[in-house]
């Protein structure tokens, strides 16, 4: 009975405990529960701050659960860290009494509801985070209201017991620690030192940004104000720390460009801080984090408007994760969202590509022309008849899913070498993708188009036959994208996906002129092997020079519909498309999942003998943690440093061989693919061997 009650309490309290800890971590842009737990402990260096902070965040969490907000939405601490900040501020201002605790609870609920409202407005209309704006608004209201609350006892012992760092510690470093502690309303160098150690343990990039932002801001303030000692002593300098951390490592990808943004943003914050302090002092209010919020939000909005390429697509648990994920995506997945297939089967040659030699110029530059060849040339005999051309009346297939928008048919085909300058596009059709662009195919044979406006087509649907109508000297297929349905508009950039060129698999790219290209068609065996069924379980065994380590992985899906393999130590995210299967993100420290990612980061789903492909791996697959940490720090300035390259190909229907290039070494590996679900059976190089077994579901076994 006691064990059952303990289990119930554990099940109910565990989500709250995690949300509580992550709320603390979120204040300094960290998402690690252990970091938040340490920060919670630091707040109790001044008990009044620690107690009211706990009360405020607990009240916010309880209210959120009362109104039906799910635990999954609260687990990140995103909606409750502002309430926590308000509570910490009240503990700094007031002594702990029943009345002050009641105010902390009310303030927590008030801040939570304001956070919900602002988050909805900011995400919908501005596409911005709310940062700590709710904290600034509610704290300003409470500070002003407290002037009339005579029953609240001001905290006479708001300062910590006098502490000092050793005399050899320079004033600027002591000032940095004090400013860092002031973020949690603990303006003391010892408290700040403890927080600095937490940040350093979580992220070296975040720590260096905090220190650099502080030094830059204090330097600018001293330059304008004329007193370095006054600038170092100003506790409001924590605004510089927050600006540097937010823009240099959280909302922007840590890189040279984001560092330049920080160099511009921190002086802006210094000027704004001077103005805010002067204005708000008339009402007895501190500056809070208003300069940080105003500078960060305005710059993020401006950078978003111009589509600044270093705005983070996905914010990781640390800047290191954000950087690694960004570099991996940049190297592995082109950013261009417009994707199409090839409009034919079999092998064709790119006759004219983007920025082509003849007609693909200016506004018509982003287009592709395809011809068929015979013994290296585009025609048989002397090429005097249309029938001499292998492309003549070959089937043209739909490269995209969509609805046929316009069709033009009935134009006569030209004799070879003759151009129809009056009907430039000849027989053509356009397909509305429903995504804001149309695909245009041109130069069909007369009366060969098999679809009409309004017809729905899928990739591979029959559209018509290749011809030589319009401005066309020989039978070929012309393809481009544009905004409207009638050809002649400015062409749009796009990528062709899932094709082969010169014996290599290209997941997505722009075919080059003179390349022989062909679509890759999925095989049943590879499609089956790459189908990881939700809730199915795999037994993974890794041998790496010591006793084998085995672990069970289960296929799961999160609220964002991302699928992943989960073990007790991590998650490995994967995605399956029509032409390929690939892993794309590793979370946690599971060396077995890292080995799986390392051996087979990508798998084409079509088999061709000798087909090869290459890939670039994230630093997360590296076995040594210290090596990853050093590389992530260096890659802020040198992004290609320490790149891990994967090269391999099919040597049989169930076998892949290749090499992994890393640190100047090139190690061969071999993979045996699964003959059913489970992706692979085994993979090995000269250092480790991985075996994968699909574990059948046992009768009566509960699936999560």
Question: Any overview of this molecule?
Answer:
Strands 19-18-17-16-15-14-25-24-23-22-21-20 form a twelve-stranded antiparallel beta sheet. Strands 1, 2, 3, 5, 6, 7, 8, 10, 11, 12 and 13 form an eleven-stranded mixed beta sheet that branches. Strands 4-9 form a two-stranded antiparallel ribbon. It is built from 18 helices and 25 strands. Helix 1 crosses helix 2. The chain folds into four domains: 1-158, Ammonium transporter AmtB like domains (Ammonium transporter fold), CATH 1.10.3430.10; 170-312, Orthogonal Bundle (Ammonium transporter fold); 339-493, Distorted Sandwich (Glucose Permease (Domain IIA)); 524-695. The chain has 704 residues and is of the alpha+beta class. The longest helix is centred in the first third of the chain and has 29 residues, at 98-126.
């Amino acid at each position: 009975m006691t064990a059952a009650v303990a289990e119930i309490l554990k099940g109910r309290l565990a989500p709250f405990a995690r949300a509580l800890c992550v709320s603390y971590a979120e204040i300094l842009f960290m998402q690690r529960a252990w970091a938040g737990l340490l920060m919670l402990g630091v707040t109790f260096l001044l008990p009044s701050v620690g107690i009211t902070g706990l009360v405020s965040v607990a009240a916010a969490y309880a209210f959120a659960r009362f109104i039906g907000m799910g635990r999954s939405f609260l687990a990140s601490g995103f909606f409750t860290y502002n309430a926590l900040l308000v509570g910490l501020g009240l503990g700094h201002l007031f002594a702990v009494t029943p009345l002050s605790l009641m105010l902390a609870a009310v303030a927590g609920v008030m801040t939570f509801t304001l956070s919900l409202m602002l988050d909805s407005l900011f995400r919908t209309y501005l596409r911005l985070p709310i940062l700590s704006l709710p904290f600034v608004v509610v704290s300003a209201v409470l500070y002003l209201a407290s002037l009339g609350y005579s029953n609240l006892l001001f905290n006479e012992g708001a300062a910590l017991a006098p502490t000092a760092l050793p005399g050899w510690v320079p004033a600027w470093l002591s000032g940095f620690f004090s400013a860092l502690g002031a973020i949690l309303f603990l303006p003391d160098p010892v408290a700040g030192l403890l927080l600095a150690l937490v940040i350093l343990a979580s992220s070296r990039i975040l720590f260096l940004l905090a220190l650099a932002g502080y030094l830059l801001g204090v330097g600018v303030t001293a330059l304008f104000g004329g007193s370095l000692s006054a600038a170092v002593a100003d506790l409001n300098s924590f605004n510089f720390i927050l600006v540097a951390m937010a823009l240099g490592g959280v909302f922007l990808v840590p890189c040279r460009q984001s560092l330049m943004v920080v160099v511009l943003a921190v002086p802006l914050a210094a000027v704004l801080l001077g103005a805010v302090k002067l204005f708000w002092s008339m009402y007895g209010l501190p500056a809070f984090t208003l300069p940080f919020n105003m500078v960060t939000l305005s710059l993020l909005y401006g950078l978003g408007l111009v589509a600044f390429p270093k705005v983070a697509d996905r914010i990781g648990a640390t800047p290191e994760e954000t950087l690694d994920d960004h570099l991996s995506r940049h190297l592995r997945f082109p950013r261009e969202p417009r994707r199409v297939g090839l409009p034919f089967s079999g092998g064709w040659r790119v006759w004219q590509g983007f920025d082509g030699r003849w007609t693909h110029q200016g506004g018509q530059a982003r287009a592709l022309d395809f011809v068929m060849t015979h013994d290296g040339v585009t025609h048989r005999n002397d090429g005097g008849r249309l029938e001499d051309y292998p492309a003549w009346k070959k089937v043209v297939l739909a490269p995209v899913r969509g609805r046929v928008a316009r069709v033009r048919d009935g134009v006569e085909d030209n004799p070879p070498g003759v151009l129809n300058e009056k009907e430039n596009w000849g027989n053509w059709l356009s397909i509305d993708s429903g995504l804001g662009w149309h695909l245009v195919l041109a130069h069909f044979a007369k009366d060969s188009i098999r679809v009409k406006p309004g017809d729905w087509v899928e990739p591979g649907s029959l559209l018509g036959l290749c011809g030589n109508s319009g401005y066309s000297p020989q039978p070929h297929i012309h393809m481009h994208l544009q905004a409207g349905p009638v050809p002649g508009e400015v062409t749009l950039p796009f990528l062709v996906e899932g094709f082969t060129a010169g014996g290599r698999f290209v997941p997505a790219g722009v075919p080059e002129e003179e390349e022989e290209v062909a679509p890759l068609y999925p095989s049943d065996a590879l499609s089956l092997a790459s189908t990881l069924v939700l809730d199915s379980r795999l037994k993974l065994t890794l041998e790496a020079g010591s006793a084998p380590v085995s672990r069970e992985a289960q296929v799961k899906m999160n609220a964002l519909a991302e699928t992943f393999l989960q073990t007790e130590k991590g998650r490995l995210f994967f995605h399956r498309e029509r032409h390929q299967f690939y892993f794309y993100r590793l979370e946690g420290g599971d060396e077995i999942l890292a080995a799986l990612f390392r051996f087979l980061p990508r798998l084409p789903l079509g088999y061709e003998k000798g087909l090869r492909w290459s890939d670039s791996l994230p630093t997360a697959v590296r076995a040594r943690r210290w090596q990853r940490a050093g590389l992530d720090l260096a890659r802020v300035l040198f992004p290609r440093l320490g790149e891990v390259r994967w090269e391999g190909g099919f040597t049989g229907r169930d076998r892949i061989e290749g090499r992994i290039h890393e640190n100047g070494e090139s190690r061969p590996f071999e993979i045996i693919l699964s003959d059913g679900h489970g992706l692979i059976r085994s993979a090995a190089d000269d250092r480790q061997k991985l075996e994968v077994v699909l574990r059948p579901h046992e009768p009566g076994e509960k699936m999560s």
